[in-house]
Design brief:
This protein is an alpha+beta fold. It is built from one helix and seven strands, in the order E-E-E-H-E-E-E-E. It has one helix at 18-34; strands at residues 2-5, 10-11, 15-16, 42-52, 59-70, 74-83, 86-98. The strands form two sheets. A five-stranded antiparallel sheet has the order 1-5-6-7-4, with helices on one face. Strands 2-3 form a two-stranded antiparallel sheet. The protein is elongated, with a radius of gyration of 14 Å.
Length: 103
């Protein structure tokens, strides 16, 4: 997924807030699960761990998500976040597979 982050989401004027970086990775991992096809399902994040390698500045980010293991009701995911080909953050998460009632 690609994200464009503006200065509105920064502290110290040029550093993107950690919560925004976390949101991008959480979304990328969730959309991998949603995009698996088959039964319409989504994922509720149960646990998420972040590792921040570098600061992010306003501009474009690329978030990659992947499934490392999937069970019947639980999925394990990992993510990487890049800005200009530099690794900014990584994540790992555990999610619960759910089928929304309105689907």
């Amino acid at each position: 997924m690609r994200f464009q982050v503006t200065q509105e989401y920064c502290h110290s004027e040029i550093i993107v807030q950690g919560g925004i970086l976390t949101t991008m990775l959480d979304a990328a991992m969730a959309y991998v699960v949603v995009g698996m096809g088959g039964v319409k399902q989504t994922v509720a994040t149960l646990e998420l761990k972040m590792n921040f390698m570098a600061i992010g500045n306003p501009g474009e980010f690329v978030a990659l998500g992947k499934i490392t293991h999937q069970g019947r009701t639980t999925v394990f995911m990992e993510g990487e976040l890049y800005q200009r080909d530099h690794l900014i953050a990584t994540s790992s998460a555990t999610g619960k597979l759910v089928t929304p009632r309105h689907w």
